[in-house]
Amino acid sequence: MAEVKAQLGEADKGLSNELEQFVSLRGDKWDSFHFRKGSDVLVRYNLLQQVEGNEEVEWAGVTMHSLVRWRAKQNNPGQPWHLWYKVFVLAACCQLICEDGTEFRQHLVVHLQDVEVSFAGSKDAERFESFVGETLGRIYDDEGRWEDAEELFVRVMETRKSVLGEEHPDTLTSMANLASTYADQGRWKEAEELEVQVMETSKRVLGEEHPSTLLSMHNLAFTQESQGRWEDAIQLMQDCVHQRQKILGFDHPDTESSSSALTQWRALWQQDTQTAN
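Given the sequence above, the corresponding structure tokens read:
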């Protein structure tokens, strides 16, 4: 919740203390046991409705009964319900991104379609809506709903280019997110084109040793590897590994991730070369 409120700026209409109590965490972690027990009771009394799931889960989640939502709005018509709903969903999304829980994501994704993302308004409002779009896009992307993710990432990227400029770090992040979604769909050329832009701009603006620059090198190398361009991918990942070892240290998770990929690619490339000969 703190991350979401920090992004609100002038859009903050004042989330009541009473409402904030409902998003408190136990030991800084989501308590799935209490969530399920509480949901079961509300479903039993028809205050919540189960939403149909898929082959993996019996039901994907719950949503508030339409009559309950209508009654709440009638009771306090002057309250900013849409903003409060957006803030609550965003808080859940941010927690999910930190914890990466597949089951919780399946519960949450059914609520995202009701979150309105509007890029009209003041610069503060546009920045907040960009944060909304980026956060929701990441959830859609993780859930494999790439068209939904792509639509949001494109809107975020264009808004940030207009508001922040094409070389702003947040703009580069939005470009990298869009490139990742292209890659997830096998659209390698589109992904690579964006990733090259991100890497070159990051080198120029942030510096060749900046962690964000190294991440862009890591991502581009994976896109090259996915196209079977072993030499390009290995060379770029090798440069990334050397820089990460120097800047982050040998034991850093990012360094280990790049090193592991490099070792695996070298072995596969050698195997392919031997097979071809």
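The CA atoms of residues 71 and 77 lie 10 Å apart. Try to locate this feature in the token string yourself.
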